[in-house]
Every structure is written in structure tokens, then in C-alpha cells.
Design a protein that fits this description.
It comes from Microlunatus kandeliicorticis. Pfam families: Glycos_transf_2. Keywords: Transferase. Helices cover 38% and strands 20% of the residues. The chain is α/β, with parallel strands linked by helices and 326 residues long. The protein has two domains: 187 residues, Spore Coat Polysaccharide Biosynthesis Protein SpsA, Chain A; 90 residues. Strands 1, 2, 3, 4, 5, 6, 7, 11 and 12 form a nine-stranded mixed sheet that branches. Strands 9-8-10 form a three-stranded antiparallel sheet, covered by helices on one side. The chain is globular.
Length: 326
Amino acid sequence: MAHPEGRLAVVIVNYGSHALLEELQLPQVPWLEVVVVDNLHTPASREAALALCSARGWTCLPQPANLGFGGGVNAGLRYARERGFACFLLLNPDARMTPEALSVLRDRCLQRPDALISPVMVTSTGRRYFRGSQLDLRSGRTRGGWSGSSTPEGSRPGGEGEPTGRWVDWLTGACLAFHRDVLDHLDGFDEPYFLYWEDVDFSVRAVRAGLSLVLLEDLTVVHDEGGTHRDAHSGRDRDDVKSAVYYRYNCRNRLLFGARHLDRGGLVRWIVLTPRESWQILCRGGRRHLLTHPAHLRAGVRGSLEGMLVALRALLSRRRPGPSTG
């Protein structure tokens, strides 16, 4: 028998991905409700999402525009909080969740109301691609890795062949569970990111608020990363394919994060390192793809310039301290 205080809301942000939603199988149990936040894509995709949710018994929250990932998450969380759900699970449409995994995540949320909780994730081919992630606060570079003991300031050295950094852990929003108490400390996702880096920001703010990040290394969920933003030109189903949207917002939001979280000196450092770090982001899909997909390079340059503008505005808004008169 389900405990009333243990109800779980699965919040899924959808943007024209109804074909992926059709493949998503979630159990019908008393303690679970599926909430699909449908960001407006096309009239046809809206109708498809509404019809699918109606057939599955899911709740559909149609939005008048594309609110982005963070805006969609916040809309779903508001709906679930108002209806008294104790636990929330953010889930991408291209993830595959077993009833057992859902039960484990709900139980851990109830046991750890002070934590963000994530499983390990593998692709449908069995490749493990997420077992925690880290951000270097000195450069804005991200990598796979997990210390399990991050502090808000970061204290982890770089890997072999990498410069020493201040690495902090973060958890992906592709499959992220947490108790409603977490939202007493954090005001949802930061919507101006629009897409990508919201989960980095959410994790860092959680740690700074005294919450914990928990990686369940004995729980695995299947997720084909990037399925919702697969490259439309190649049409290939490859693990390393990225989209122009991916490059633009990753380059942009690295600097948006810096503008929100770094002091003046740290933000200047990130700005100076932008050419190197944006190139590193562009190379995540392999250098050869930049020759066959020049739009990806243009997207990365555009995102970098947009991020630079945000960062420079942040610098100009911060006055240097005046000379001491004491």
C-alpha cells in the first residue's frame, strides 16, 4: 500500500519529442503521477502530446511558448508542489525507467530530503556515459568524474595531463530526484539558461545551501544522451552526435554561469579562457564534424559571443572597491 506522504511526481519537459514519449513506459502505481510539460513546438506536436498523455493517463501541462528546459521544469514542479507531492523526479523523454528504479529513487528521496539524487546512466548500447560530473571553477571546463565530497569552493586536482583545478561535483538533470524540502532552499531552476547548464547551476547552489549530492552507483538507468536534440543534418544515431543548439548554449551558458557565481577575478579568468574552452566544447563531437557541419562552428561562435556579452555586462555592473580611508 502506498504511503500518502511518499507520492512521486515524474516531471518530463517535452519539446516536439512525442515520438520519444511514446516509447517511454512508466508503471501505473498509486504513488506516482507523470507530469508532461509541453513546450510549444508546432500545433501538430501539441496535439500529439495531448493525445498521448490522455491515452496514458498522464497529466499534460501545455505551455503557450517554448519556456526552455528550466522554465518547463519549474512549471512542472509548481504543479506537483501545489498538489502535495513529496518527491520529484526530473526525467528526459529519451530515458528508460524501470518500476524498480522508480521505487528506489522514491525511497531514497524520502530517506534523504536534504539531497539531490541521481543514478548512473548508460546508453542503449550499454556504454556508461554518466557516473557523476565535475566543473572546474578556475576555467569553466566540465568533465566526467565524481569525488563525493565536493565543497562549495572546490578542492579537487585535475586528472593526468590536466592543469590543477578546483573541481566541484554536479548531477545531470536528465534523471534527477529530490524531496520537496529541497525547494525550501532552492528556488527551482534558473530559467535564463534556457537549455544546458541549469543542472550544473542547480547542483552548485544546492551544495552552497548546505544540501548534498548523492550518486547511486548501484542503480543504472538507460538514457540515450542527446536524443531530444539529435543532429538533424546527419540523421545518424551515434552516441557522439551533437546539435548546433548544443554547441550554442553550452558555449553561452558557461559564461552565464560564471557571471552568476564567480567573483570579478574569477569571471575575468573565464572570459580570457573562452577561446580555449569553447574550442574544447566544439570538439566534443570530434574535429572532423566541424568540416562537414560548419553550422556547428557558427553556433559555437555565436554562443561564445552571447556569453561574453553577458559576462562583460556583469563585470561592468560590479564596481571595484574604492581605496581604503581607514
